[in-house]
Amino acid sequence: MSDWPAQAADAIENAVAVARERGVEPAQRATRAIVVGVVVAAGVGIAAFVLVIGLFRGLVEVFQGEVWAAWLTLAGIFAVLGAVLWAKRTP
Predict the structure, then answer these.
(1) Which of 44, 50, 79 has its CA nearest to residue 58?
(2) What is the 3-state secondary structure (H, E, C) of 19-30?
(3) How high is the pLDDT of residue 22?
(4) Which residues 6+ apart lie within 8 Å of 73 measured at CB?
(5) Where are the alpha helices (DSSP H) in the chain?
(6) What is the rounded distance in angstroms from the CA atom of residue 59 to the CA atom of residue 53?
(7) How far is CA 33 from CA 20, 38, 45, 47, in A?
(8) Are 72 and 53 in contact (CB under 8 A)?
């Protein structure tokens, strides 16, 4: 008897393995990278938001309850930061 059923099964298994190696695994890596990137970006955004709130509350305490001074200080910090980033942009 011939061994063609085993050879056919091996050929199918090899084809599926090659398709998985070339198609599914890169897609899984890309999806994993996207998900991790979104989670990290959300965490950084939340941390920045909480940091700004804490900085504002700290400035209000430093200026002994003068909220306008805290707003003015934060506005100056963000204006300088924006100017620096604007100067570093690529044309």
Answers:
(1) 50
(2) HHHHHHHHHHHH
(3) 87
(4) 59, 63
(5) 4-19, 25-62, 67-87
(6) 10
(7) 18, 9, 18, 21
(8) no
Handedness of CA 18, 19, 23, 24 (dihedral sign): negative
Tokens 């305490």 correspond to 61
Question: Per-residue pLDDT for the chain (91 aa), expressed as one digit of tens each?
Answer: 578 888 888 889 998 888 888 888 899 999 999 999 999 999 999 999 999 999 999 999 999 989 999 999 999 999 999 999 999 998 7
Question: What one-letter code names the amino acid at 67?
Answer: V
In angstroms, rounded to a whole number, what is the distance separating the alpha carbons of residues 24 and 22? 6
Q: What is the pLDDT of residue 19?
A: 87
Here the contacts of 25-32 (C-beta below 8 Å, separation 24 or greater) are none
Tokens of 6: 């085993």
